[in-house]
Amino acid sequence: MSTVIVVIGAGSIGQAIARRVSAGKHVLLADLRPENADAAAGVLLDAGFQVSTATVDVSSRDSVHALVQTAGAIGTITGVIHAAGVSPSQASPQTILSVDLYGTALVLEEFGNVIAAGGSGVVIASQSGHRLGALTAEQDQALALTPTDELLALPMLQPDRVNDPLHAYQLSKRGNSLRVMAEAVRWGKRGARVNTISPGIIFTPLARDELTGPRGEGYRRMIELSPVGRGGTPDEVGNIGALLMGPSGAFITGSDFLMDGGVTAAYRFGGLAPQ
Asked: Is 173 a catalytic residue?
């Protein structure tokens, strides 16, 4: 029986992690747009990987559950790479919360029910979650532990409280890291691990949308004033993903890895700090 690595979101970051952890395994590439999954599958097939594709809408429980069943029919699910999402320049606050927050909770719940012993997962969050101000202990608890299908009904997430796409994105990504911390406890009962990676500006199509969008000037300023002075590459995220999903990361679970070239540091203590 095959060993399966499920990649949700067939973009550059998901592919970069998959290339490092999927040798000898079956890669199931899932995306909302079949053409994206097919294009990524072609690249991985040419690189020697065994690949199949599926369509998934992470904001739909039925769709995510169907993906779990598809993966289970192929073999034992030992890895989940969740890299699907929308950015502040791509969607409304409600869509961002549905896809980035609720969708991630769905993926964690559904795959946490079937992940194999010794398995691992990585969720791609964002540096944006680190720039959101402190939430109350009650809000942290709510984002981490509210039953998935009740999550979007939380008072703190209603349109009168969240009416800006960036705020919705920051809340979603903070929620991702909190949710993963809570889910790590449940995954651990199955002998599996799960972590988040919070990248900064990584040069992907999504980042290009941001750099050419209404917040483009701010993004360029972040790069210029960061300690590293450049954006990152998907391969650099892939290196962290490989650590977290592989044997060298066996003692790491429920953690969030911020890798942003020092942008968050510059916001707190450097040239990006509020004057």
From this structure: yes
CA 124 – CA 9 distance, rounded (Å)? 10
Give 209-265 as a DSSP string.
Answer: HHHTSTTHHHHHHHHHHSSS-S-B-HHHHHHHHHHHHSGGGTT--S-EEEESTTHHH
Please report the domains of the chain, with CATH numbers, ordered by start residue: 2-202+237-262 (3.40.50.720)
Please tell me the distance from the alpha carbon of residue 133 to that of residue 143, in angstroms, as a whole number: 15
Q: Which of 173, 189, 219, 267 is catalytic?
A: 173
Task: Tell me whether residue 219 is one of the annotated catalytic residues.
Answer: no
Report the distance separating Cα 143 and Cα 228, nearest Å: 32
Give the pLDDT confidence of 223-258 residue by residue, as tens digits: 999 999 999 999 999 999 999 999 999 999 999 999
Nearest CA to 238 out of 16, 61, 6 is that of: 16
- Both tokens of 54, joined, read 């599926």
Catalytically annotated residue among 102, 169, 219, 267: 169
